[in-house]
UniProtKB/TrEMBL annotation, chain A:
Chain segments annotated as transmembrane: 9-30, 95-122, 134-157, 177-196, 233-260, 280-306
Record's subcellular location: Cell membrane
Cellular component terms per the entry's GO annotation: plasma membrane
Record's bilayer topology term: Multi-pass membrane protein
Protein family (similarity comment): Belongs to the binding-protein-dependent transport system permease family.
Protein's UniProt name: Peptide ABC transporter permease
Domain ABC transmembrane type-1, chain residue ranges per copy: 95-304
Transmembrane found in the keyword field: yes
Keywords: Cell membrane, Membrane, Transmembrane, Transmembrane helix, Transport
GO molecular function, one term: dipeptide transmembrane transporter activity
Predominant location: membrane
Length: 314, 697
């Protein structure tokens, strides 16, 4: 188990390195002076000279990479081109908004999708089954940014039920929550149907297994058979799917943040790209990747914890 | 015999009355059960026997009300006490399940949920009892101890995959007995187990019946198990009960031609060694078609014209009933049933010519072959300080197969038989030793160089339907080896027909797909594939596992004929000893990857030298209720894991004769005759000068 964990952490470290290398080479592959890229076109010659020295831009590329890696590992992701503030601080201010959005989005999708999938599996052909079936097919075809725009138009502009823009007053929890509802709804909606179908398929397979018949033959209640036995096994592939699904969810969140003008990391990256504010882009991408790696790792550990067969093969 | 009398009672616990049942399928209504009636007497063990597809399991599941969704009971009752289980509401039925009526399942691997520990699975079964969690756990531990799980206090927290096959089935029996049910239903409880485990399970279930006064209904196609375990027997064929009776009556005085045929087909009941086994030709009738007359008519050797149209009478006999025209009415035949010495089944007497012994140089020569499997990664081994991070799956194996000879490789599962077979065919790398085929060293040969030899050596796989690609027609399947080995210029259609004829598969089957084949037909396709390239050696892994005795004979007879015609050599990997006795020239017994005894089959059977050989030979339950073994006859324990190979004699942990001298080093192989070896320090049979040593244990 410990060896497994070490292996996985090692692997995660390698992926983070690879992303760093990618970001680093992007900066150097784009034609033009990297100092100007990093500082912006309005930078003064002194600033450029200072930056060139600080980032060792006059030294061999390999040395530069080592320096870059060194500072990145110490948590130094450079400075904002415009405000000169540390990128880490800026991300720190914004990451909470993004995490809240992503977790709420996935959270409500799981809380609704998994029970719907169970219901659909227990009664194939029932209305729950048919509705989730149609819904999931429909939702896979519609990108989440369209859902965001519709939700914005309908619920805030047309019906005026919920606020359209921003993340709410700092410190006012109710207000923040009301600002979270629409974007979280938009990014999670597609997942409800998708998860319901996944859980349904996986449940149907498990319900046909001999051990489910054993549980029924021992007289366990139908409720216990479905929730305590079938779902206990059927949820395992769904966990992997959810872990991997966070990748897609992060990109949906970027769009949702843009559309709802939510001050999260996604919006930050978007703005920075249009401003050619390279250090911010770099930092944002790094944080997003790190988050994704962490989620996948956690889902694998969760599976190992829930499935003794996986656990003992580690 | 003795214990039978103590369970003589006439009180009926469960009565099945005129039960008929259909399955709705896309082929039409399958009339799976028709007019089934029999009582289950309290405190006794009732066995239901019949070929697969005869409806045995369906009867069991209908007692519990757990039939598949497409099943529909069309008539009948299942009376338990004063209640009809077929009309009981769902709640009342559920209250019965697990408490009063419980089940032991066929395959403990798939019938126990893999993600919950036994403690939890067992306390779940006790959910209706007002007991504390601690008491439930204690009850689970007690029951695990009762069924022979060592160290139950800690093993109760194990998960199914952490148990071996035999332990898992013990745990399955513990789960079913936890509530002390009145009625225990067991569906093929030992089919997934080795003979040694089977004997242990039979003893265990009989013991539990005595201790808990539980009535048992056991379903099996294994006549040995039925004879050894049951008091009463119901014989089913194609969805009907053809005969019932007390076990001695069924085995010694069978009235129905089907019962009689089934018994005569069992190789364990055929005393004289014969290469050709009797068979019941034909297949179970299609149950979607309208059925008239006697259901067995299409395969019955005694069938008369009227049998096909006129339903046979149900005739009362001493301890049961039988359904046949020969027994009563205008068609009755006073000379039926003939004495046991008269054969009533199809015997293919074009006996395959026995081969001259020692016919020439060995075709296959294996010397000191070793195969190792890694147990952990190099990194893990380094960290844990494990010097040898691998196990010996095959250890110093030497054997010869001469042209036209059949060598049977026998041992419990996990003894390395399949690995050895695969290594001989170069499908698995060897860690040392040599394999010579027709004088050429082929061990670890590069596949490119080995490919031409693949024509000479073929493999017949276990589980034919699993190893046949479901999307290919039989024609494509049996000509596939020809395509792989470049059959330019050959007429594939003609080849397919030639092969189909060889394995006696009607040519019409060439356009069918694997799922449309019966077990025996799928096996024939497997044989045809193996034969496609005219090999000289065929390695057959469990060629008849899972086949009914009536069909098994057809496959073995076919293999014997092909051997006589083409001079084939066979390496047959099996744990079915009664069959081995009839088909093998030589036999090699494997235990934990080592050959512990080998020699001419007849001699080894008659006089086992190694205690393990004796345990295997005696482990087979005899299909004769008068030859029941005492429960203690079964050897104890299971094959240890390769990770825990004993230091001295591998068998020492289970050997009844083990003593200190056995433990320091592995016994060397010693010859009794030039043709016979064993690896035991205190053999049961030996050359004269060793005799004295063995007689003073
Ligand atoms: N769920 C099912 N749907 C359709 N046919 C079935 C089903 N279960 C069993 N059968 C058919 O019913 C007959 C009896 O099957 P089964 O009770 O499993 O026999 P046995 O246990 O004696 O092998 C067979 O012809 C089988 O194909
Ligand atoms: S009734 Fe006729 S066909 Fe049926 S078992 Fe008796 S003799 Fe054979
Ligand atoms: S060597 Fe000893 S332990 Fe091994 S089989 Fe012979 S008697 Fe038994
Ligand atoms: Mg069955």
């Amino acid at each position: 188990m410990i060896i497994y964990l070490m292996k996985r952490l090692g692997l995660a470290a390698i992926v983070v390195m690879a992303v760093l290398l990618l970001l680093f080479s992007m900066l150097h592959m784009i034609p033009g002076n990297p100092a100007i890229l990093a500082l912006g076109t309005r930078a003064t010659p002194e600033a450029i000279a200072e930056y060139t020295a600080r980032m060792h831009l006059d030294e061999p590329v390999l040395t530069q990479f080592v320096y870059f890696l060194g500072s990145a590992l110490q948590g130094d992701l450079g400075q904002d081109v415009f405000s000169n503030r540390a990128v880490v601080d800026i991300i720190g201010e914004r990451i909470g908004f993004s995490l809240a959005l992503i977790c709420t989005g996935m959270g409500w999708a799981v809380l609704l999708g998994v029970p719907l999938g169970c219901l659909a599996a227990v009664r194939p052909g029932s209305w729950v089954d048919r509705v989730t079936g149609v819904f999931s097919v429909g939702m896979i075809a519609v990108p989440s940014f369209l859902v965001s725009i519709w939700a914005l138009l309908l619920f805030s502009l047309e019906l005026r039920w919920l606020p359209a823009i921003g993340a709410g007053e700092p410190g006012d929890f109710a207000d923040q929550l009301s600002h979270l509802v629409l974007p979280a709804f938009a990014i999670g909606l597609g997942w409800v149907g998708y998860l319901a179908r996944m859980v349904r398929a996986s449940m149907l397979e498990v319900m046909g297994e001999p051990y489910i018949r054993s549980a029924r033959a021992f007289g366990l209640t139908p409720r216990r058979v479905v929730l305590g036995y079938a779902l206990r096994v059927a949820i395992l592939p769904t966990i992997t799917l959810i872990g991997m699904g966070f990748g897609g969810l992060i990109s949906s969140a970027v769009f949702a943040e843009i559309i709802f003008a939510r001050p999260g990391v996604g919006k930050m990256i978007f703005d920075a790209v249009s401003d050619r504010n390279f250090p911010i882009v770099q930092g944002g991408v790094l944080v997003a990747t790190g988050f994704y790696i962490l989620v996948v790792l956690m889902s694998d550990l969760l599976i190992a914890w829930l499935d003794p067969r996986v656990r003992s093969s580690l | 015999m003795k214990d039978m009398d103590t369970h003589m009672t006439d009180e009926t616990l469960l009565n099945i009355d005129a039960l008929s049942l259909e399955f709705r399928t896309n082929r039409g209504q399958v009339k799976a059960l028709r007019d089934i009636s029999f009582p289950v007497k309290k405190g006794r063990i009732l066995g239901i026997v019949g070929e697969s597809g005869s409806g045995k399991s369906t009867v069991l599941w209908s007692i519990l009300g757990l039939l598949a969704g497409n099943a529909k009971v069309t008539a009948g009752r299942v009376d338990y006490g004063d209640r009809d289980l077929l009309t009981l509401d769902a709640e009342a039925l559920r209250a019965l399940r697990g408490e009063e009526v419980s089940v032991v399942f066929q395959d403990p691997m798939t019938s126990q949920i893999p993600v919950l520990p036994y403690a939890r699975q067992m306390s779940d079964i006790l959910y209706r009892r007002a007991m504390s969690e601690a008491d439930k756990r204690a009850a689970a531990v007690d029951m695990l101890r009762r069924v022979g799980i060592p160290d139950p206090e800690s093993r109760v927290d194990a998960y199914p995959h952490q148990f071996s096959g035999g332990m898992r089935q013990r745990a399955g029996i513990a789960m079913s007995m936890l509530t002390g049910p009145n009625l225990l239903l067991a569906d093929e409880p030992t089919t997934a187990l080795d003979v040694t485990m089977e004997a242990q399970m039979i003893g265990l279930m009989r013991g539990l019946r005595d201790d808990f006064d539980t009535t048992i209904v056991v379903v099996s196609h294994n006549l040995g198990l039925i004879a050894e375990m049951c008091d009463d027997v119901v014989v089913m064929y194609a969805g009907e009960v053809v005969e019932t009776g007390e076990v001695h009556d069924i085995f010694h005085n069978a009235r129905h031609p089907y019962t009689r045929a089934l018994l005569e087909c069992d190789p364990a009941r055929i005393a004289d060694v014969s290469r050709k086994l009797p068979v019941i030709p034909g297949d179970i009738p299609d149950l979607t078609k309208p059925l008239a007359g006697c259901i067995f008519a299409s395969r019955c050797q005694k069938a008369m014209p009227a049998c096909a149209t006129k339903a046979p009478p149900l005739v009362e006999r001493g301890t049961g009933v039988a359904r046949c025209h020969l027994l009563e009415g205008p068609l009755a035949d006073a000379s039926w049933p003939p004495p046991a010495s008269v054969s009533t089944v199809a015997r293919d007497d074009g006996a395959a010519a026995p081969l001259p012994a020692n016919a020439g140089e060995p075709l296959l020569e294996v010397r000191d072959l070793n195969v190792q499997f890694r147990t952990m990664g190099a990194l893990k081994a380094r960290i844990r300080g494990v010097a040898r991070p691998f196990v010996d799956a095959v250890l110093d194996v030497s054997l010869d197969i001469r042209p036209g000879e059949t060598l049977a490789l026998v041992g419990e599962s996990g003894s390395g038989k399949t690995t050895l077979g695969r290594t001989i065919l170069n499908l698995q790398a060897a860690a040392g030793g040599s394999v010579r085929f027709d004088g050429t060293e082929i061990g670890n040969m590069a596949e490119r160089r080995f490919k031409p030899l693949r024509r000479d050596m073929a493999m017949m796989f276990q589980d034919p339907t699993g190893s046949l690609s479901p999307r290919k027609s039989v024609r494509a399947l049996i000509t596939e080896p020809l395509l792989i080995h470049g059959a330019e210029g050959r007429d594939l259609d003609a080849e397919a027909e030639r092969l189909a004829d060889m394995v006696r598969l009607p040519r019409g089957f060439l356009s069918r797909y694997p799922h449309e084949l019966s077990g025996g037909q799928a096996r024939r396709v497997g044989v045809a594939r193996a034969l496609a390239l005219n090999p000289r050696l065929i390695v057959a892994d469990e060629p008849t596992a899972g086949l009914d005795v009536s069909v098994q004979g057809e496959i073995l007879n076919l293999m014997a004929d092909l051997q006589a015609e083409h001079g084939l050599s066979y390496l047959i990997i099996t744990h079915n000893l009664p069959v081995v006795r009839h088909i093998a020239d030589r036999i090699a017994i494997m235990y934990l990857g080592r050959i512990v005894e080998d020699g001419p089959a007849a001699e080894v059977f008659a006089n086992p030298a190694h205690p393990y050989t004796r345990a295997l030979v005696e482990g087979v339950p005899q299909p004769d209720p008068d030859r029941r073994r005492p429960p203690s006859a079964a050897i104890e324990g299971e094959v240890p894991s390769l990770l825990r190979r004993p230091k001295g004699c591998d068998f020492a942990t289970r050997c009844p004769l083990a003593r200190d001298a056995c433990r320091p080093a592995k016994p060397e192989h010693r010859h009794i005759t030039p043709d016979r070896r064993h690896a035991c320090l205190f053999p049961l049979t030996d050359t004269q000068d060793n005799k004295n040593k063995t007689e003073t244990p």
